[in-house]
Amino acid sequence: MEWVVSLTEAADQLGKEGCGSKAFELSRLMQRGYCVPDGFVVAGKVHESITSAEAESKAADMQVAMLQAFNRLMERYGAVSVRSSCTAEDLSHASFAGQYETVLNIRNQEAFFQALRHCWNSISYARVNAYAKANHISLHGSQMPLIIQGMVNADTSGVAFSIHPVTHENSVIVNVSYGLGEAIVSGLVTPDTFLYEKTTGKLHAEIGSKELKCVLQDQGVCEIDTTWLEQQRLCITEEEVLEVCKLTENLEKEYQTPVDVEFSFQEGQLYLLQVRPITTTKEKTAV
Fold first, then answer.
1. Element (H, E) at 233
2. What is the mean pLDDT of the chain?
3. Which of 162, 104, 122, 151 is nearest to 20 (CA)?
4. Can you give the residue ranges of every domain in the chain?
5. CATH for 4-150, options being 3.30.1490.20, 1.10.10.650, 3.60.70.12, 2.10.25.10
6. pLDDT tens digit string along 210-249?
7. Which CATH class is domain 156-277?
8. What per-residue string of b and e applies to 75-85 under the rule 16 or more CB within 10 Å gives b?
9. What family does the Swiss-Prot or TrEMBL record give for this protein (predicted)?
10. Structure pTM?
11. Looking at residue 205, what DSSP letter applies?
């Protein structure tokens, strides 16, 4: 069994149990031609092997394999992200959104291995266990595969829903703001909101205040204030919104269930970052 596998081949070589739901779905989407940032997957059992004193020689080989894959990706992108793909994540009834760790804009080997450890350790976070308990999910036997992807230096990012997540209206809802998507998913900004009526093709837009944006710096990310002009105008064009809506509708048809989609634009190119079933009516948050 391979422990470090290209993202394109991860679904076939590792299966869902070996690479987790998130990596499995991204891998299948890449195979179908969707524009997903390239990368590789570190299988879930790598963490167990690296932390086992009895497997020291194997762990050294795994670290070499991960470093070689990291260096190849760095040559293409100049920076990478490390994302969780836990086998208890992106489930049909519980997304675990925001529970595990993601580390962005990694530019050297030391930061890369620190990010791996950080994401691996997040499976034991108290908030993760509380969320799992609230949704009646056992984490026993769960593994933490990781996705390492080329970093998209996003001009704008957002989340799209193939149906209204609250009213279940049959319209595509798009929330989008400047910079990286963390500003939206962390609730730091009031994004621009678009509602696309599937039956009529009408598009409605509401300008959000977009108070700040998350951008790349020399290492990691930082938050900077948006300008007055940025706050007063829509951050993407009508053509770009319709491109996102078409992508979201296509994915809903492929998955045969309502989905939410994370995306970014860089220099006019639309990147698909994640797809998962809409679970807002099913899952519970820990209190």
1. none
2. 86
3. 122
4. 4-150, 156-277
5. 3.30.1490.20
6. 999 999 998 889 999 999 999 999 999 999 999 999 999 9
7. alpha beta
8. eebebbbbbbb
9. Belongs to the PEP-utilizing enzyme family.
10. 0.87
11. E
Q: Where are the alpha helices (DSSP H) in the chain?
A: 7-31, 45-50, 56-77, 109-121, 126-134, 182-185, 228-232, 238-255
DSSP 227: P
DSSP states of 83-123 as a string?
A: EE--SSSS-SS---TTTS-EEEEE-SHHHHHHHHHHHHHGG
The answer to whether 71 and 79 have CB atoms below 8 angstroms apart is: no
Kindly state the tokens that stand for 153.
């230096």
Residue count of the chain, please give it. 287
Q: Lowest-confidence range among 1-10, 132-141, 233-242?
A: 132-141
| Residue with token string 């990691």 | 220
Least confident of 43-47, 94-98, 134-138, 230-234: 94-98
pLDDT of residue 283: 44
Residues 184, 208: Cα–Cα separation, whole Å: 11
Residue 55 has φ and ψ, to the nearest 5°, of -120, 40
DSSP code for 240 = H
Residue 191: CB atoms within 10 A of its CB come to 24
Asked if residues 83 and 152 have their Cβ atoms less than 8 Å apart, the reply is no
One-letter-per-residue 3-state SS of 229-241: HHHHCCCCCHHHH
Pairing of strands 80-84, 102-106: antiparallel
The residue with greater pLDDT, 17 or 236, is 236
Tens of pLDDT, residues 156-183: 999 999 999 888 899 999 999 999 999 9
Query: What is the rounded distance in angstroms from the CA atom of residue 119 to the CA atom of residue 100?
Result: 7
Which tokens is 19 given? 């690479």
Coil, strand or helix at 134 = helix
C-alpha pair distances (Å), 238 with each of 68, 71, 82:
41, 38, 32
More confident residue, 287 or 43: 43
